[in-house]
Amino acid sequence: MQFSKYLRSVEKSQTLLLNEQSRTLEKGGKKVYKFGFGQSPFLPPQAVIDALKANAHRKDYSPVQGIPELREIVAQFHRRTDGIDVKAENVLIAPGSKILIYAVLAAFTKADLLVCAPAWVSYVPQAHLLGHGVITVPTSFEGRWRLTPEALAKALEARADKKIPSVLILNYPGNPDGLGYTPAELSALADVARKYGTLVISDEIYGQLHHTGRHVSLAKYYPEGTIVTSGLSKWCGAGGWRLGTAVIPAALGNEFKDTLLGIASETYSCAALPVQLAACEAFRFTPETGNYVVQQRRILSALGDECAARLQKSNIRVHKPEGAFYLFLDFSPVAGTLAEYSLNTSQAVCESLLAETGVALLPGTAFGMKSEQLSARLAYVDFDGVAVMEAARRTGTLEPLPAGFLSEHCAHQLAGIDALCDWVAKKESLAPDATHFAAAV
Ligand code: PMP
Ligand code: GLU
What mean pLDDT comes out for the span 37-42? Predict the structure, then answer.
């Protein structure tokens, strides 16, 4: 049977695809620096793993919205950590926050989605699947890849049909940029969203991984119009368990919530019950879990800073990260050199880099950047999370990690960064023009 004429145009998500490609290369004996896929290297806390094991026999379907016990614990978690007013009835649990973002977008028969470029890989394909309009708001390296209130207002003003609902997805600490927003920036964005009646999905899945623990929720400034999404995938190291949470403001009304529950009930039914029970343990956020998160912050901030510092020395533009485990690289200072090797697109740069050095990055195009803007995302997660967490604990303090810690415990990660820097340096010194120049001198 041939259905091609009627099939949707949707490719495999680039993050998942690159993960598979890196694995295949590794199996074939190639040394790969797996900086392409944004997966936490850490194991969930032991108590959370134990809770999952203890509940493996809980095999029944559970309520579509999530079990009441977990919804209450998640509501408390947000009240305590974000200082926002959340009740259990406003919390939705699902198999991952990705499907929750999709469900929110699917709640609308028509909508305009506003996203920044760069932004996480799946937002735009989700909107396309649903037939929604997409408005991409460009950002810049100089502007720290931040959405400004002016740019947001301009994009909202320029919409062809302002009666259609507008939905903005904001994600911080950000994937792919690792950067946050200040309270003043959030407050200014909230003012614009409120003025235009824009619904905001605030993807705060990396909130707990703000390197200095200073994540602030947009819902503080725009409680009536902000849906906050999060889950176990990042701070709790359990992406494959598939558990996401969403806080749906009461102000959006029962009709909105019922629409989401309708979509949930007709698609994924519920999150796995044993995972929800393990999530109760995680979101209870005991002192042990708190320590586990603080250790991750110590490791990720030291490693992120070190990777950024090395890259900055080699003519690659990058900002020192504030959270999560990503760096967004801008190769524009070496674009002229790379062009001499016919590396004119971010995909070509990433392909050549992977083939020549084994360093896997995800090209900026996956994040909505133009292909000639030579950019790529680097996920600094290629280390043994269990061993490094143990070593961080053994330092016996919560102070920043001592010098030497990274070269001892994250050597492979740093070797990959050096391989990337050397690749750029070699390209610069051996570029045809440079050779001519050397020959002439
Ligand atoms: N948002 C961002 C920015 C992400 O990086 C991810 C990770 N894949 C998700 C959402 C989805 O996470 P999950 O579905 O695992 O909760
Ligand atoms: N969030 C991860 C990334 O951006 C991967 C998981 C996914 O895309 O679903 O690389």
Answer: 96
CB of residue 118 inside a 6 A radius of ligand 1: no
Q: Is the pLDDT of residue 439 over 60?
A: no
Whose Cα sits closest to atom 1 in ligand 2? 38
Task: List the CATH number of the domain containing 200.
Answer: 3.40.640.10
> What is the mean predicted confidence (pLDDT) over 391-397?
96
196 lines ligand 2 (CB under 6 A): no
Question: Which residues constitute the domain of residue 114?
Answer: 61-285
Number of domains in the chain: 2
Ligand nearest to the Cα of 275, by number: 1
Looking up tokens 């292909």 gives 371
Q: Is the pLDDT confidence value at 437 over 70?
A: no
Same domain for 31 and 106, yes or no, is no
Q: Specify if 56 maps to a domain.
A: no
pLDDT at res. 412 = 97
243, 266, 285 — which closes off a domain? 285
Q: Give the residue from 252, 285, 318 where a domain finishes.
A: 285
- Ligand 2 pocket test, pick from 14, 17, 121, 229 with the greatest ligand atom count within 8 Å of Cβ, gives 121
Q: Which of 37, 230, 234, 328 to mutate to test the pocket of ligand 1 (most atoms within 8 A of CB)?
A: 234
Q: Which atom of ligand 1 sits closest to the CA of residue 242? A: 15
Q: Does 175 sit in the ligand 2 pocket, CB within 6 Å?
A: yes
Q: Residue with the nearest Cα to atom 4 of ligand 2?
A: 38
Residues 370 and 353 in one domain: yes
Distance from the alpha carbon of residue 402 to the mean position of ligand 1, in angstroms: 31
**Ligand at shortest distance from the CA of 19:** 2
